[in-house]
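User: Hi! I have a protein structure encoded as tokens and I'd like to know what sequence might fold into it. I'm fairly new to this, so please keep things simple.
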């Protein structure tokens, strides 16, 4: 049964890796665009809601805001943050955000916030890669070696 679970992890790995790399690429593009071509703009906070993943409440909150620029439809953006930081904001409040002049749909609370989002995604991807490497190592070892490894980890 353990072999089946390990093989299932390996079979789903390519899909997870492609998804993770696309998220990394998007966050890096956002960071570089707001860093290189960023302009500040006034946005209005629409709402602050608890984060959730598949219906399970998360630790942080998501701040959703609307930016209105001449010649563009309303641009809606979102930023994830801790509950402590989110307490600084309220619905209807005007905030300063940064957007890419080359593509105003790329918005962030600040260049630093965009960088932190990218770095946190890199950390998550690294953790997933470590789990994947461990899975491959467990599959490649024989049952006898795997039992020894499980006992060593349990100590």
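Assistant: Happy to help. Inverse folding works backwards from shape to sequence: for each of the 155 positions I chose a residue that suits the local structure. Here it is:
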């Amino acid at each position: 049964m353990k072999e089946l679970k390990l093989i299932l992890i390996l079979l789903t790995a390519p899909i997870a890796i492609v998804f993770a790399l696309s998220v990394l690429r998007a966050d890096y593009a956002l960071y570089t665009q707001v860093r290189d071509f960023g302009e500040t703009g006034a946005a209005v906070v629409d709402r602050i809601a608890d984060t959730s993943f598949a219906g399970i409440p998360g630790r942080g909150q998501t701040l959703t805001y609307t930016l209105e620029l001449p010649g563009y439809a309303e641009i809606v953006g979102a930023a994830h943050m801790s509950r402590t930081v989110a307490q600084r904001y309220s619905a209807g409040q005007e905030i300063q955000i940064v957007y890419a002049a080359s593509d105003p749909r790329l918005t962030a609370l600040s260049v630093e916030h965009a960088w932190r989002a990218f770095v946190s995604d890199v950390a998550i991807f690294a953790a997933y890669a470590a789990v994947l490497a461990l899975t491959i190592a467990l599959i490649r070892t024989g049952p006898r070696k795997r039992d020894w490894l499980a006992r060593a980890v349990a100590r």
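A useful reference point when you look it over: Residues 2-154 form one domain. Feel free to ask if any position seems puzzling.
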